[in-house]
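Open question from group meeting: does this chain pack into something compact, or does most of it stay loose? Before anyone orders reagents, we agreed to write out a predicted structure and look at it together. Recording both the input and the output here so the notebook holds the full record.
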Amino acid sequence: MASWRAVVGVGGGIAAYKAAELVRELVRRGIQPQVVMTAAAQEFVRPLTFAALTGRKVITSLFGSTPEEVLASSVEHIGVARGHDLLVVAPATADLLAKFAHGLADDFLSTLFLAFDRQVLLAPSMNTAMWQNPATQANVAALRARGAVVMEPEEGELACGETGAGRLPEPARIAEEAHYLLARRHDLDSETVLVTAGPTREPIDPVRFLSNRSSGKMGYALAEAAAWRGARVILVSGPVELAPPLHVELVRVETAREMRDAVMAHLPESTILIKSAAVADYHVTHVPAQKMKKTATRMSLELDPTPDILAEAGAEIERAGRGQLLIGFAAETENVVAEAKR
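Structure tokens returned:
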């Protein structure tokens, strides 16, 4: 059963068809959607599509067609506003952004926006020139200043044939942002959490490197969980095949030395440090400038220890006396409990 209720406003743009997938993604996350369509949106997608996906009547007009419906709909926008936790508008066209910013209310969606006093999430979609137009940017700035969350449009090929910023963010990403706004807690609001994740790569030559099998999944999950609890999160990540969590400051590194430098640079501002990265223990002493040629003879590598980031951070925390919490991880294959206590 759905835990939250969200209004999904569908604007009149070519990306309106993606709102159907957005509705499905919201339902998957336990969010019950109520779809509201503008007249222009109905030129691209029929209301029946959303009615079939949600099992609910789609609101398409501010007024009904009969006297009874007109009477019932006269305050329907107030009832819908009071009965939902979040308003998501996707696609949020340039026209809708302008209406919202200037308080115009000439249809159900724009009237609902004025009556909605909870969280608002807007996902713009339009031509690049329209997005970059100073009028649109001023409208976006005004809406953000009033508390609305306006996502950045994605870059790529647009329906008009041009390439640039203006694509509607992927429905799964919009749904994840909606879920974040509804589910986030605030018990870590005052914390800055510094997390390390993934492996490091220590070059052997310009094309080869030493590394390990770390996927980075645990560190990314910890960073995401901290962000959903209200913390400011800085994620220092080695090379992984993972999308960065929402609302996390990502610092990409490759070598142990780079990870050490990033951790020590951000350590003073952090209150919690979670070292979940699988940092290489050794690096090649002298890395040649050119690729080493393969030969039939045996070859040995001269290795030096990499910086002990956990030990250095711990020493700095103790020296500074800031009361920071330090959590370290280590992969072991034997004597796990004894090694954990060491």
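Observations to bring back to the group:
The mean pLDDT is 91.
The chain is about 35% helix and 20% strand.
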